[in-house]
Amino acid sequence: MKKFIGFMEKYFIPVAAKIGGEKHLAAIRDGFIAIIPIIMAGAFAILINNLAIPGYQPLMEHIFGKDWKSWGSAVWNGSYAIMSLLVAFTIAYNLTKSRGKDGLAGGLVSVATFIIFFGDLAKNTQFFGTDGLLLAIILALIVGDAMAYLLGNPKLVFKMPEGVPPAVAKSFASLFPSIIILGISGLVQAIYQHYIHVTIPQLVMTSIQTPLQGVVGSLPGVLVLIFVIQILWFFGLHGSNMMLPVVQGVLFPLTIDNMNRVKDGLPPIYIVNDQFLNSFVFFGGAGATICLIVAILIVNRTRKRKSEVQLTLAKLAGVPGLFNINEPIIFGLPICLDAIYLIPFICIPLFNAVVAYFALAWHFVPLVQLEVTWTMPPIISGWLATNSWRGALLSIILLVIDIIIYIPFVMVAADRDVKAQDEAIEAAKAQEE
Description:
Blueprint lengths: L1 H19 L2 H12 L1 H14 L6 H9 L5 H8 L5 H16 L4 H14 L16 H19 L14 H8 L1 H21 L4 H17 L2 H16 L4 H4 L1 H20 L10 H7 L8 H13 L6 H15 L4 H6 L6 H23 L18 H7 L2 H44 L1
């Protein structure tokens, strides 16, 4: 174990640390966080339209008429149907701003560039949604960097006369950078369209996004993804943020595809997606740490000598953990670089994924059909995501098993902590004497 940790610290951690602090990853994270309210609005609109309660649909139709679902479709059009447009703006905005430049200009030019590559706009509106998500992310990163670079060139600043309002002067400061980027984008689109009759969004979706979904959206693929996330966390790196481009660019569209099918009255078809991870794998965050917190409370309640360190941190991390925020327990206990917790921390999410996968594949639990977002507490998340009490039941079963798995490791760690407490007391007495 020491050799493994030493090897990882020497060769793996320095590279991963540089990746973890990368501005592009931070921009993607912040860009998706910014649109969470819009995502939630669209998700709950579809949930209300499709609640799996006996007699619910006839009742709503009787009260509001046959077209009562049209309001939910309208909310969908203003949320998930324009997801790629929103992300194209928010990611480029955050990236340009992180480099100390005009984030608003970066976001606007990113959206304009994204639309340029659609060709005939009326025929390709499907790519406003999640079908164009990967292209939107790529373009937002490219345009964000390009705008930050060009906005920093004093030769490209359009100087306005004195007395012009600051807002107008700021807008014209991005004039030449915007013209350059949009002009190049238009030229690329014109040349591409002349020789190739498949649109750029279609090409990216069929050649990159769809194959990646086939790999990562499989059971072996998602297990590899989970393992990477967990091993990064164990070594003190934010694995969830570092793997966010894969989760949001590849798995998130699969959740939306399921939601689209449900909206159209069809059954969902994708077992693995980002909400699958949020609802059935990462209870309380990576490592299913809400189960660790419960295990700590159970173990220390039954012991004569309690680990004060464990108890204090469990109480502090309990409420954040309920909403899947687990940095306090991971870095406070700490779990990272603690060999005692290595096995359960990595293996429990993998176990959850396997059990949940087959529970959904064998139709014991309905497939995920709603994006609930990652901050929804466990059990409630399982119920809402599947629109079924069986999703909540699966969550409860996995939670109980995870707690049981964590308990023996917590006991070992508690014994170590109590021993350290005794040694500290004896050392203090020796100093007094």
